[in-house]
Amino acid sequence: MEKPWRLWGSVERCALALASWSWGACRISLLALILTFHLYGGFFLLALILASVAAILYKFQDVLLYFPDQPSSSRLYVAMPTGIPHENVYIRTKDGVRLNLILLRYTGGDSNIGHRVPNALLMLVNLKANVVLVDYRGYGKSEGEPSEDGLYLDAQATLDYVMTRPDLDKTKVMVFGRSLGGAVAVRLASANPHRVAAIVVENTFLSIPHMAATLFSFLPMRLLPLWFYRNQFLSYRQVALCRMPSLFVSGLSDQLIPPVMMKQLYELSPARTKRLAIFSEGTHNDTWQCQGYFAALEQFVKDLMNSHTREESVQSTASVTII
After folding, report:
1. What angle do CA 130, 250, 173 make, to 5 degrees?
2. How far apart are CA 27 and CA 24, in angstroms?
3. What digits encode the pLDDT tens for the residues 71-111?
4. Residues 111, 84 contacting (CB under 8 angstroms)
5. pLDDT in tens, 188-235
6. At 100, is the secondary structure helix, strand, or coil?
7. Which of 179, 286, 303, 308 is catalytic?
8. What is the Cα–Cα distance from 30 to 53, expressed in whole angstroms?
9. Which residue among the candidates 86, 135, 254, 269 is catalytic per the annotation?
10. From CA 276, how far away is CA 64, in angstroms rounded?
């Protein structure tokens, strides 16, 4: 039985490679195809033109979704926190990509930092939590190029690394994601239900096909099959597998992702402990600056810590670790 499966796998890879090469050839020769069709017409040439346009749109999806070069210096300089215990670490994913991550350590007491510090440092101080920041492949000092499967591997490698640390409590790992990171967080939590204690997602979407239908409502995007999308990020399916405590943070002034998608994700969640925190003035990337934002996260973390204390029947002093 093993040989037929291997044979089928080889045939499938060859077919995909041939299809990819043909698609690329059509894309390169699009102008020539259009001129030839204009002169001679023909159904076959029209089909090749449509295939070429589809190939261009398929490839262009990455440009709309990933922005590894913004700001322009982001690939050359990654700011390091000062005055906070931290570690700059490099890890490798299962497919061999080298990633850069920063571990911010909470050591107790009050930290003397101002209101201008980045979001992550405010999490450390307000939530009294360790914070792990990872540059996805293609971002910052990490190698590779971003892709949906690649980002999933990056998140998994980060979680695996945290689980190897003897100084971090493996039972108190909370996954956080904003925007595209929310989709990655949902996928990571769904694939690791016994390793992720809680999940927080902020201003994220149901899926890329849902976003395409919203952004290009003047086109029949809903009629396109899933395989048309190079990146799918089907969070509306994955969230149904996330039964751990879940917090959904929604900024109602988000001009990029419709806030109704956050409400729908909340409603799709099967978690027994789940909350929907709404901030009327919250925008896509700046909801964390709204009044009451950290109070909502702090209460969620406190409830999580209390539930662990009851289960363990002992008082634990270990901090939550946020990925």
Report:
1. 25
2. 5
3. 665 655 566 666 678 889 999 999 999 999 989 888 765 54
4. yes
5. 999 999 999 999 999 999 999 999 888 878 767 787 788 888 899 999
6. strand
7. 179
8. 8
9. 254
10. 28
Q: Is 188 left (phi over 0), alpha (psi -120 to 50) or beta?
A: alpha
Is 62 noted as a catalytic residue in this protein? no
Q: Would you call 254 a catalytic residue per the annotation? A: yes
**SS3 letters across 245-312:** CEEEEEECCCCCCCCHHHHHHHHHCCCCCEEEEEECCCCCCCHHHCCCHHHHHHHHHHHHHHHHHHHH
Identify the active-site residue in 62, 74, 111, 284.
284
Residue 321 has a pLDDT of 87
Instruction: Specify which residues 88 forms β-bridges with.
Output: 102
pLDDT digits 0-9 by tens, 146-182:
999 999 999 999 999 999 999 898 989 999 999 999 9
Does the annotation mark 179 as catalytic?
yes
DSSP H or E run through 15: helix 2-28
Q: Residue 16 CB: number of other CB atoms within 10 A? A: 10
The pTM of this model reads 0.79
Distance CA 224, CA 71 (A): 33
Q: Are 247 and 296 in contact (CB under 8 A)?
A: yes
